Amino acid sequence: MKFPGRRRHKHYFPVEEKDPLTNVITQDNRLARNYIVGIDQIVVDIEAKVDQAFLDEFGLRRGMSQVMDDDTTNALYARLKDHNMIDYEFAGGTIGNTMHNYSVLSDDRSVLLGVMCENIKIGSYAYRFVSKTSTRVDLEHLQPVDGPIGRCFTLIDESGERTFAISPGLMNRLRPESISQDLIANSSALVISAYLMRTEGEDTMTEAALKAVEYANAANVPVVLSLGTKFLIEQDPQWWQNFVKNHVDILAMNEEEGFAITGFEDPLLAADKALDWVDMVICTAGAQGMFLASYIDDCWKRQTEHQLMPGSIPDFNKFEYSRAMRRKDCENPVKIYTHTAPYMGGPDYIKNTNGAGDGALAAVLHDISANVYHQMNVPNSSKHKINALTYSSLSQISKYANRVSYEVLVQHSPRLTRGLPEREDSLQQAYWEQ
């Protein structure tokens, strides 16, 4: 695993640089490996430029998000292909994006659960999903289905207005029996999204997701929930609050989703409120940057060397140099927060906002997984005198996550197309070394 940027510290990771006095020579020097698991509605994002006549032909209302049946979807897709109207065709899904980005960043294994067409034709949208996903993402556990996966069409007219046409296909037919208890129990984290709870009819995705959460809770594996959309949370905020409180350890959201579930428009106050339910909160807030919040035991807190920041919680970043801990592992829990403005002020031109939050979450997961990886291979390290959830401080994680989000914003794809460089001229030493 590698982290970007220049660092004087050599603890990323000192697995291969062991003290010769304590490095016991054994016949088996292979490093233990770990992985994370994500569950998603397998979907392909298709972007094309169309006119009003095209929208009228397929009964689509301009600027709206609508669900289409399979026959209409197949006709629309064929029309786009036959007339070379497709600009971009990406593998999508918020958790699919996160797993891909995690594997690109860490150069390590992640496991994606969901459904996939059992017969994949070259050039089809199912083929696009597989071919556009990192080879480090383990797709061996996908459940085969006799039918299409999900497709989301983004149709852009002459004025730039976006009309969304969604065909769910069989993406919500993941069965509970397709969830392996051992796979979940031995993972470093289980990642799900709120979309998995939005099913109907013969769909079994919700039952499968809840079964995976049950396995993770029983094995003390951190459950990470990405809220995904404010509209879903607004339908029943109380249900989501109870679900998060009872089953989730890490909550990822943007400021709108934070307002929907907590009632606080201020992202810092929303993150603070969410700490009543979970151990760690990731809140992206567009041009404001990113807020992270968690807990630290009072005896392990580290005070920042940065200027203390004003806000709705005065001097909220005072202990941002602390590593995150689960509240139940703290004798005297103290809430800790950090904030980082967008990397380099954000890009000059944003090509695509889709996937920026998924990239940030992948960076946080990389750090959490790195902590497990290091603990497995160097259990006697002084790093593990504290039973921390993360390897790095909140301050460092926030910088890393912002850097990853920037990389997604400057490209059309919602997924990272390459890893971050280890050294960058644009990164000041002060950005990473504090």
UniProtKB/TrEMBL annotation:
Domain Carbohydrate kinase PfkB: 136-296
InterPro entries, per the entry: Carb_kinase_PfkB-like, IngK, PfkB_dom, Ribokinase-like
Positions with a binding annotation for ATP: T284, A285, G286, A287, Q288, G289, G357, N402
GO molecular function: ATP binding; guanosine kinase activity; inosine kinase activity
Enzyme Commission no: 2.7.1.73
Binding site for GMP: G93, T94, I95, G96, N97, R198
Cofactor(s) in the UniProt record: Mg(2+)
Pathway: Purine metabolism; GMP biosynthesis via salvage pathway; Purine metabolism; IMP biosynthesis via salvage pathway; IMP from inosine: step 1/1
Catalysed reactions, semicolon-separated: inosine + ATP = IMP + ADP + H(+); guanosine + ATP = GMP + ADP + H(+)
Pfam families (UniProt xref): PfkB
Domain of life where this protein originates: Bacteria
Alphabetically ordered keywords of this record: ATP-binding, Kinase, Magnesium, Nucleotide-binding, Purine salvage, Transferase
Swiss-Prot/TrEMBL GO biological process terms: GMP salvage; IMP salvage; purine ribonucleoside salvage
Family statement drawn from the similarity comment of this UniProt entry: Belongs to the carbohydrate kinase PfkB family.
Role summary: Catalyzes the phosphorylation of guanosine and inosine to GMP and IMP, respectively.
Name of the protein: Guanosine-inosine kinase
Species per Swiss-Prot/TrEMBL record: Pseudoalteromonas piratica
